[in-house]
Amino acid sequence: MGLNDKPKVRVSGAGESVINARLTSWERIDAAGFQSDQLTLRINTAGQSGIPKEGAVLIWHEGYEGNMVEKGQFTITRIVPTLFPPSVTIIATAAPFQIDDKTGFKERRTRTFENISLADLFRQVVTQHNFSPRVATEFESLMLDHIDQIDETDSAFLTRIAKERDAIAKPVNNLYVLARRGQVKTVTGKAIPPVVVGVSSQNDPSKTNQFINCQLDQPSRGKLSGVKANWTNNNTGEEHPVSVGTKPFKKLRQAYESEQAALTACKDELTKIQRRGTSVTLDLPGNPKLVAEGILTLNDTFPPEMKGNWSIDKVTARGDCRGGYRCGVVGKLSIS
């Protein structure tokens, strides 16, 4: 794949001949855990019929002529017709949501889980909805004495308990993955190679196929550097403090059932603080190898404060029928 190669995209599945022939623009969002991946296609429908219906499955391919990458399956969840110019916008998500929602995935629930590992809780919830669970091994031993799901959808519940532990809970096709944020793994366990990016000597916006723009958001000098919490001894009723990091500290309000649980919560919260602290936003030439949860390496052609490894939180790929192909990337400082 080279910057002078011709960008190319392709759909396989329902209505593929119409979509491929009449696609005017597209956008694909690959996000790290807190939303389903989304594909938006805009189709010219002048004098044309045969657009697929809601619930149909599309397979999206993206890249450059002679070197395309399959980016997964997307289920059509919404179709928006427009009178002028005659067109439709197809919105599809990577999760196999169906309009009739036979398993109640989008229903709100209230229930309690006790004495269960996070891994087993996750499996119990997602298998009810015909997903195949993929769980990082570190969550097999993370025990939960008591946790409540209160008027939440299962998706919101899983996202919340994952986020509290600086992890992701994300549906992809028929899989549902629970993994530590920033972990350089796909849901199948295959390692994602880092994507190395460099700035050319003539980084000119007029050269849109090569131009790279980058913005760094650094934390203020007074940011938190540690986390404190308390755990309660159930035998004596006494509270004991634990901490990780250094001053200034953030204090967690919740009292934990054991010293280990409190320390784990402190470590997870400190990791989230550190990851929130420094972020980078880039606009760069399209690259299908950019993947949420992967690593973006900015090489020595970048200023010292920008170069290094960044954990990708979100990729927004976009293109049009004129051959445009760009990616917007949001990343956090990689501390693993």
Question: What report would you give on this structure?
Answer:
By secondary structure, this protein is mostly beta strands. It folds into four domains: 7-93, no CATH class; 108-188, Phage tail protein beta-alpha-beta fold; 195-218 and 278-333, no CATH class; 226-275, no CATH class. It has four helices and 20 strands. It has helices at residues 16-22, 118-127, 154-163, 259-277; strands at 7-13, 23-31, 38-44, 57-64, 67-82, 87-93, 108-117, 132-135, 143-153, 167-172, 175-180, 195-197, 213-217, 226-232, 239-245, 249-256, 279-285, 295-298, 308-320, 325-333. The strands form four sheets. Strands 1, 2, 3, 4, 5, 6, 12, 13, 17, 18, 19 and 20 form a twelve-stranded mixed beta sheet that branches. Strands 8-11-10 form a three-stranded mixed beta sheet. The two termini are 29 Å apart. The mean pLDDT is 86.
